[in-house]
């Protein structure tokens, strides 16, 4: 239970009233329509905002799973960057949202996780994918953003490493290299990630992940997705953010990156010792 002062309590009440008004506005506004004929709309801008996790008659993933991905994001990636029958891979599949979206859209999908939550998810560490070179049509990853969520106790869980620790990026880069290896040239990876502000310290997790991805892939675009359902999305935290002059996280990034085609522009940019010759390209 949070302790609040009298002034805080009054502010919290005010914030709650505002929230109710905003929610009503959102409900009434045609501009916020996210589903058409039971399917999500295909987004036309780089700002995406989803009031709920799933759509349609059947659930996509498990909305009780901590850190579950809005199915709308995966739907948009699948519809824009794959064709029916294509192979989609999610190396950190969590509650299986990617599998469910793909199944409904006629895409083949392999979902891995370090601790599978259901039988159709294969146990695997994302640093090594048991797949052939250049065999995959799209990868989607919503990785841990640091150690803010307790996913499981597995020692290889990236979610046990703080985003303030350089090892977090070093270990995730192994997944980037593997993603590069298994993706077909010209195909796309989508990586969802959020920044961190903990104990008065900001960490630009998104920029650091993008820097890692950029060693392997070219940027197609960068999307901002509104962060909802956060434990800090309460009146008291909004009050504190203003009073103590900090910001609550309002969005996360979706980096849409493409594996370059063989000719031109496909060399690593920072001289890192990536064993490029290992890969038949
Ligand atoms: C943000 S969640 C993914 C949520 C998922 N997209 C969904 O909709 O349910 C991140 C996942 O990464 C998994 N993970 C963490 N470290 C991993 C590793 N080394 N290899 C594979 N999966 C890992 C966690 O177990 C967790 O399920």
Write the layout of secondary structure elements.
Blueprint: H1 6-28, E1 35-36, E2 39-40, E3 47-48, H2 71-81, E4 87-90, H3 97-104, E5 108-113, E6 121-123, E7 136-142, H4 166-182, E8 183-193, E9 196-198, E10 201-203, H5 205-214, E11 218-226, H6 235-243, E12 251-258
Parallel strand pairs: 3-11, 4-5, 4-7, 5-6, 7-8
Antiparallel strand pairs: 1-2, 8-12, 9-10, 11-12
S-adenosylmethionine is lined by residues 61, 65, 67-69, 91-95, 97, 112-115, 125-126, 142-144, 151-152, 156-159.
Give the SSE order as H and E letters.
HEEEHEHEEEHEEEHEHE
What is the rounded distance between the termini?
Answer: 56 Å
What number of domains? 1
CATH topology: Rossmann fold
Mean pLDDT: 88
Which term fits the overall shape?
globular
Helix run count: 6
Please estimate the helix content: 25-40%
Percentage of β-strand residues? 15-25%
- Please tally the β strands and state the result: 12
Main beta sheet: strand number and arrangement?
A: 8 strands, mixed
**Rg from Cα:** 20 Å
Structure ligands: S-adenosylmethionine
Q: Supply the CATH superfamily name.
A: Vaccinia Virus protein VP39
CATH class, please?
Alpha Beta
Low-confidence stretches: 26-31, 265-281
How does the helix and strand content classify structurally? alpha/beta
CATH architect. name: 3-Layer(aba) Sandwich
């Amino acid at each position: 239970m949070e302790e609040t002062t009298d002034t805080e309590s009054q502010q919290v009440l005010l914030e709650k009233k505002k929230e109710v008004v905003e929610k009503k506005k959102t409900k009434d506004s045609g501009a916020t329509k996210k589903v058409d004929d039971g399917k999500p709309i295909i987004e036309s801008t780089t700002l995406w905002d989803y009031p709920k996790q799933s759509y349609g008659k059947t659930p996509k993933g498990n909305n009780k799973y901590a850190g579950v991905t809005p199915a709308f994001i995966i739907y948009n990636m699948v519809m824009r960057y794959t064709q029916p029958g294509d192979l989609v891979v999610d190396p950190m599949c969590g509650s299986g949202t990617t599998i469910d979206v793909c199944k409904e859209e006629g895409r083949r999908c392999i979902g891995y996780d370090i601790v599978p939550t259901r039988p159709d998810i294969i146990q695997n560490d994302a640093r090594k994918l048991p797949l052939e070179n250049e065999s995959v049509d799209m990868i989607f990853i919503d990785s841990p953003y640091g150690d803010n969520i307790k996913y499981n106790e597995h020692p290889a869980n990236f979610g046990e490493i703080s985003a303030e620790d350089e090892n977090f990026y070093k270990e995730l880069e192994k997944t980037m290299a593997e993603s590069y290896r298994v993706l077909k040239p010209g195909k796309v990876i989508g990586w969802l990630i959020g920044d961190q502000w903990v104990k008065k310290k900001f960490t630009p997790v998104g920029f650091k992940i993008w820097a890692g991805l950029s060693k392997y892939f070219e940027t197609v675009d960068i999307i901002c997705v509104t962060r909802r359902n956060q434990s800090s999305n309460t009146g008291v935290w909004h009050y504190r953010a203003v009073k103590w002059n900090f910001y609550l996280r309002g969005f996360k990034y979706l980096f849409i990156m493409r594996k370059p085609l063989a000719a031109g522009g496909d060399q690593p940019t920072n001289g890192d010792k990536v064993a490029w010759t290992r890969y038949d390209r």
